[in-house]
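TASK: fixed-backbone design
INPUT:
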């Protein structure tokens, strides 16, 4: 069965048969591309390869410019028939048929519509002198110039000249500078609008993990980027995490350190804190023991519970097998301040070989866990960064295969 979109096109204009593209000019283009492809690049010099690539990119841009004209015409015809239930938007068609994301589809439509009113930009695009990304920036600038004291024609001319040497990112920055220098109020309004669009979504999934999605303005994003750089530091030799994995861990570290600092605003008469609910056998990693809970919600393993309880600002809650609360401990740092200072002076950073994390970015690790009778004595603790601390849990070899396995560094 034909889709609603194809049925719509059937009624907009007669359907061209399979041979519609068999003759010129379509067949001429296809035959020329086939001949180029058949010749291959292997016999060409470096100079010829570069020149050919430049020619191909010009033709690619020309085709993109033509496609934008076609898309604008198709969009106009679809818009003229909004009363028809079978009609869908061009953006949906781009998504469903050409498999573009919704944001990319809408961006292409905006550019196609704008180019109809910007003949100089369209001509530069058609001639292959400007890329699709550069053209998109020019269209954005001209559209936004309506909210300034600048003349739209002068903005288009200035942006096309700038595109002669600037990539899309630098071209957009040049527009922001031009707008602010000519109309500070407009620049300020644009910055405030970007701030209002900032958002953060933190959702707990059904499997207990969390999804993080958001958008930050220039200031907020730069602050977070700088803080993450400071948290992550140089990658250690044995750290095989991807950059995105390291950033995720760094963001969690930032939040953990703020909780441990104990200086967040009061909520319900007390500082925000993490609650760990577990049974004693869970902390001891006994076989058949249940999972622990974080804040009476997400479930975590005994290994994770031990690591969290090793040195963190938590409120430990011990429960019976029936769920009855047996003990609610005091929220405190596991190590007394004097011991922590001595530990920082002794270890001077992460003890993992090759790791250069400084003391302030490290966590005390109990060689014998408190749940197993370990003490807070200096001889029982070592400094490790959060990444290597994870590798050291569980530290009791009785619960892991490998008797005689070497102790962690």
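OUTPUT:
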């Amino acid at each position: 069965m034909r889709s609603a979109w194809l049925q719509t096109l059937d009624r907009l204009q007669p359907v061209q048969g399979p041979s519609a593209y068999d003759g010129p000019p379509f067949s001429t283009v296809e035959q020329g591309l086939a001949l180029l492809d058949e010749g291959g690049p292997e016999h060409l010099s470096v100079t010829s390869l570069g020149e050919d690539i430049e020619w191909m990119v010009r033709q690619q841009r020309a085709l993109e410019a033509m496609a934008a004209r076609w898309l604008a015409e198709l969009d106009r015809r679809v818009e003229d028939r909004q009363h028809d239930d079978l009609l869908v938007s061009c953006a949906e068609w781009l998504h469903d048929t050409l498999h573009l994301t919704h944001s990319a589809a809408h961006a292409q439509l905006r550019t196609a519509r704008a180019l109809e009113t910007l003949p100089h930009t369209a001509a530069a695009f058609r001639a292959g002198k400007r890329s699709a990304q550069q053209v998109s920036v020019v269209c954005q600038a001209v559209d936004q110039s309506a909210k300034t004291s600048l003349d739209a024609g002068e903005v288009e001319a200035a942006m096309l000249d700038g595109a002669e040497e600037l990539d899309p990112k630098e071209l957009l920055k040049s527009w922001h500078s031009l707008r602010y220098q000519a109309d500070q109020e407009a620049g300020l309004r644009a910055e405030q609008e970007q701030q209002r669009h900032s958002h953060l979504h933190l959702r707990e999934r059904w499997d207990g993990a969390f999804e993080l999605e958001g958008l930050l303005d220039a200031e907020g994003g730069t602050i977070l980027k700088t803080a993450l750089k400071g948290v992550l530091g140089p990658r250690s030799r044995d750290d095989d995490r991807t950059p995105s994995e390291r950033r995720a861990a760094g963001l969690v570290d930032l939040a953990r350190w703020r909780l441990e600092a104990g200086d967040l605003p009061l909520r319900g008469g007390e500082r925000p804190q993490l609650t760990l609910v577990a049974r004693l056998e869970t902390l001891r990693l006994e076989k058949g023991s249940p999972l622990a809970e974080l804040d009476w919600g997400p479930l975590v393993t005994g290994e994770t519970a031990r690591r969290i309880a090793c040195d963190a600002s938590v409120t430990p809650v011990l429960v019976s097998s029936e769920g009855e609360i047996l003990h609610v401990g005091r929220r405190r740092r596991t190590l007394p301040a004097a011991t922590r200072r001595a530990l920082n002076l002794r270890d001077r950073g992460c003890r993992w070989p090759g790791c250069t994390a400084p003391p302030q970015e490290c966590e005390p690790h109990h060689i014998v866990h408190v749940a197993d009778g370990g003490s807070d004595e200096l001889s029982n603790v070592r400094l490790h960064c959060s990444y290597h601390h994870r590798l050291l849990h569980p530290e009791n070899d009785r619960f892991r295969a490998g008797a005689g396995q070497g102790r962690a560094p």
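COMMENT: Residues 4-12+48-184 form one domain.
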